[in-house]
What does this fold into?
Amino acid sequence: MKPDSLPFIFISACLINNFVLIMFLGICPFLGVSGRRDTALRMGVAVIFVMVICSMCTCGINYVLDHPKINAPYLKLMCYIVVIASAVQLVEMFIKKTSPALFKALGIYLPLITTNCAILALALFQTSKGYNLVQSLVYAVAAGLGFTLALVIMSGIREELDLADVPDVIRGTGLALMLAGILSLAFMGFAGLGG
Amino acid sequence: MPENAKHAPSDMDTFLRGLWEENPVFVMVLGTCPTMAVSNTVMNCFAMGLAATFVLVMSSALVAMFRNVIPNQVRIATFIVIIATFVTIVDYAIQAISLELYASLGAFIQLIVVNCIILGRAEAYASKNTVWKSTLDALGMGLGFTIALLSLGTIREVLGSGTFLGFPLFGPHFEPWALMILPPGGFFVLGGWLLIFSWWRARAARKTARRAQQEQGVVAG
It folds into this structure.
């Protein structure tokens, strides 16, 4: 497959270069919201939504700032982060209005999507890879799906873990990181996929 | 520690707190993404630690300087724009100093913008304290972050490629434990450190509990 064909972009962003388990992006929500499966799933959907909006906006920002008349690449980083912050605000208002229960379950992690490195990294990567609008859209959806996949798998394991007899000292973030390491090992098996 | 230190922390305490007591990575588990992503060589750790410390100190000082001017409703947005400005400076500086280093750190230089440690310090400390205190606090936190990075990076580079700062350590027959420089190694080493710290803390708590019990026994006896 060609490296810039749509199926390749999809598989690469979703599995081979999974944002959480291979690229270490968005570890904070990965550890914070992966306690219960339904919360994890909804957090994933919120992240996909923010990712798609930001990816579209990034295309626009790049088009404007790379325009020969303006030519201000040093403003890119600031523009991205402002757009991301506003998009998160939008999602936050939407969720608060439609589902107060979900709003409570996500808690502090909802506004923290702003400082989720996965979102800014998506904007940076699609810029450095020079994707066009359609490719960016596929990339954003795939990256979001990969994030959701990792989150849901992790929450499944942690729900089971609550029933297991684990020594008190090991309980907590250290154990979660060890589990993530094993998952990451599994995801490395996808490396040969897509040729 | 003098008795009054608890009421008004001295400059030294403000500085040292970030290094150990409230170490951003090991105690507060913040900024884990860059910690694991760039810690596969010691050189990367140095560069990342320095870059993050610079951004942390400069943005904390600026936020503290303008803390009475920034309206409360838009403070987060203001902090992020301040941080993004300094990150852009660092980004261009590293690109000018060493292209090789820039390539190996990749997008993680620009991702300093969304490092929770920096925004966290701006929100929790710099927006409420004087410029001098905030600078000291930021310096301590930055050094704490650098130390955490180095303690991960040293283990990963020595085990994963058998070198330290690029110098071979074990001679030609060493079979490197390649897993350590791959992504799972980052999770395992940080997880291991956190487990060691929580074991150590649990042990200390047990000791103080036992001592308190003994003292009670003495009083009762």
Remarks:
- Strands of chain B lie at 163-164, 167-168.
- Chain B touches chain A at residues 29-30, 32-34, 36-37, 76-77, 80-81, 84-85, 87-88, 91-92, 107, 110-111, 113-116, 119, 179, 182-188, 190-192, 194-195, 198-199, 202 (CB under 8 Å).
